[in-house]
Amino acid sequence: MAKGPILTDEVKRLIAEICSEHPDWVAKEVKYEVQARLRRAGHQAKPDWPGITVVQIILKQIRAEREKGPLPIDKQWSIGRLAEYDIPAGAVSKVLEIQSIRANHEPLTIREARWIGRLHTVTDEIMELAVWAAMYADREKICDIANLEKDTSDLDSTVQSKLVTGIYYFPWLFGKTWVPDSYKKQVAEEQTLKYERLCGLELDRPDISLNGWLIYAHTLLYAVIYDKRYEHLPKELRELLVVGYRQLARDEGRILMAEPGKYLDLLESIKKGVVCENSYNEVEEIIGVSDGKEMKELLDKLHKGEAPTNKGGKHARSHSQEG
User: Fold this and answer.
1) Whole-angstrom Cα distance, residue 153 to residue 133?
2) Nearest Cα to 7, choosing from 42, 51, 39, 59?
3) Coil, helix or strand at residue 269
């Protein structure tokens, strides 16, 4: 009898991506990470799905391919490769420019150069082209290794709408040494503005560090795109929550990038009145500060507006029903 839903190509691709990202991991480590990422993306499945067997099969397949050495298409690009790999004439100058950008970091591969050729009419921004070509190339490579159909519909949607919805896009982008910090900040600012507007919010841009922008963009994307609780919050509470995310980003607190929903879990319990001294301490531990004025104001406002109490907590505070 099957122990979970049918394994889709999307899940197989996720397994392959994690195997490639962490070549030294054993199957159990890969399995735990796959399960964690599926939960964060809102997939409802049994806790132990996918199982260890399918992970071992894909991991063995990827290691076998790796032992063969890089495919010819994943070797370093040079202009001489045009004799073997055709690229539209109008894209060659852009390939050379991106090759120069990446020269002292990760050399441009033939596969990536071909994707620049395919996408060069989509955008006039050279860094945007470089980033998207790299993402498409990564996807194609994973699909080749895992013998999967080359489905890029999620990437296509983002390129077309200019709205980033990939849950691991920002950690991926900020981890690329060849991408200038100025571009990383620009993208984070542009995308968080869009997420805020999706919530009906018009806010000034926060003054935060580069790492703060990573934290803010990653957590806000998760809340707005993936965490279904967020869309049901009233506007005032959504704005207060965004203020909290900004506090996290400003202080570069100890929020776990791997668990962006944890913060909303805590605030939701406070909103419902399930509040005790430990709730505040746990929020402060995630934030990494004990005297964040904005955060305390946020928690106090959430707390005072609710009627239920935590009858089991010795530090619980009660409030009268409003209305």
Assistant:
1) 15
2) 51
3) helix
Domain residue ranges of the chain, discontinuous segments joined by +: 9-67, 72-161, 169-304
pLDDT band at 125 (very low <50, low <70, confident <90, very high): very high
* Mean pLDDT comparison of 2-16, 168-182, 239-253, highest-scoring range: 168-182
Beta strands in the chain (DSSP E): none
| Helix 293-304 / helix 262-271 crossing angle, nearest 10 deg | 40
Q: Examine the pLDDT at 56 and tell me if it is beyond 80.
A: yes
- DSSP-assigned beta bridge partners for residue 231: none
Q: What does the buried/exposed string (b/e) look like for 96-126 if buried means 16 or more CB atoms within 10 Å of the residue's CB?
A: eebbebbeeeeebbbbbbbbbbebbeeeeeb
* Burial track 184-221 (b if 16+ CB lie within 10 A, e otherwise): bbebbeebbeebbeebeeeeeebebeeebbbbbbbbbb
Contact assessment for residue 287 and residue 262, using Cβ atoms and an 8 Å cutoff = no
- Dist. CA 72–CA 111, nearest whole Å: 9
The amino acid sitting at 68 is K
Burial track 144-169 (b if 16+ CB lie within 10 A, e otherwise): bbbebeeeeeebeebbeeeebbbbbb
pLDDT by residue (tens digit) across 176-233?
Answer: 999 999 999 999 999 999 999 988 888 888 899 998 898 889 888 888 888 777 777 7
Average pLDDT, the chain: 78
Q: Which of 63-67, 97-101, 153-157 has the least mean pLDDT?
A: 63-67
In 3D, which of 306, 230, 296 has the Cα closest to residue 275? 306
How long a stretch of residues is the chain? 323
- How is residue 25 annotated by DSSP? -
Neighbouring CB atoms inside 10 A of 283's CB total: 24
* Entry pTM: 0.74
